[in-house]
Amino acid sequence: MDSALWLIVLVVLVLAVAGCAAVLLVRVLRARRLLLDAGVPLRSKALFWTAVVYTVSPLDLIPDPVYLDDVGVLLVALRALHAAAARSGAGRKDLPSAAEASIRGPKRVPPPL
């Protein structure tokens, strides 16, 4: 093949990996709220933090240039964290958290007419 074609394939591959990494970064940042929630089991939180440490560590199960095993481990941990949060009812947007409820104070009901 022509070297220009290989360069195009390499650029497309790098852009695809960068896009996946950006999506994964957004999912990790959104998971911070679940890590602070008391309803999520400690086991799921520990699994998530173990996956983050594995992702940033220089040791790999599969030595590869595109970090496929790192991304896979982190995706599995994110899925487990979200599943545990769904089972416990944590992270629901329709219910205020305990911190939000304490800031707002008790809900006031208007007196009947």
Low-confidence stretches: 94-102
- Rg: 21 Å
**Quick one: how many beta strands?**
0
Tally of contiguous helical segments: 5
Average pLDDT across residues? 75
Assign an overall shape: elongated
Strand content: under 5%
Characterize the main sheet: none
C-alpha end-to-end distance? 83 Å
Order of H and E elements: HHHHH
- Residues in helices, as a percent range: 55-70%
Topology:
Layout: H1 3-30, H2 32-36, H3 42-56, H4 68-88, H5 98-104
Helix pairs in contact: 1-4, 3-4
Describe the protein.
With 113 residues, the protein is mainly α. Helices cover 67% and strands 0% of the residues. It is built from five helices and no strands. α1 packs parallel to α4. The longest helix is centred in the N-terminal third of the chain and has 28 residues. About 8% of the residues have low confidence.
